[in-house]
Fold:
Amino acid sequence: MRTPIIAGNWKLNKTIDEALAFVRDLKPALSKAANVEIILAPPFTALSVLAEALTDSPVLLAGQNCYPEQGAFTGEISPRLLRDAGCDAVILGHSERRQLFGETGEFINRKIRAALKEELQVIFCVGETLRERQSNQTFKVLEEQLCEGLTDLDGTGMARLVVAYEPVWAIGTGQTASSEQAQEAHQFIRNLLASLFDRVVADNTRILYGGSVTPNNIAGLMAQPDIDGALVGGASLQAESFLQIAEFGKG
Ligand code: PGA
Structure:
């Protein structure tokens, strides 16, 4: 009922040539990964060339961030310009943005609303730090981040929004959440969506897991009822491992 999504977040990696080489390797093998939506989030500089290279393929493109306004904002990028460069989606609220660039829940909410207005699909990231998990704050943090990020959204906006649960302690550490830990958080998020919106919105919203996903752990994660895909960082940098993940490790 919910089409799974496998999204690759390249972060600040890959030149234009490297991005094109990845797509060349990925495209022929793509037919093997059926019934899954594949999204790539390259750096801004590679977006428009990849959009052209992917014109005859089902792969979608995402920006890794955006600013909620247009105009005199040196160094920023708007949802409208992401669309113009060929993007279908944008990742917002990533923990690296929250932690390294001081993004607040209120700011992330403004970005989400601006991106939805431009009809971009939004991959909205939430997740607790190790200290928060160890002090039993996980659900409280998830609730706060979701309530802030989703302020003033309605069912129409939610139809284009995907949540990514990314425990900060699992990102880039090689320490994945266990399938059970992830399922527990995903179920909590889905129930929270039901109380913030309604059951239909909760049941239709795709919730991705992110944090050290690899070809070896994807099958166990995808077997969980509330895990609808993955947001992949490190393992999305090689076409081969990304494809294995897109096939849920069955390769
Ligand atoms: P990782 O990154 O797969 O390298 O842990 C995930 C992410 O930050 O989205």
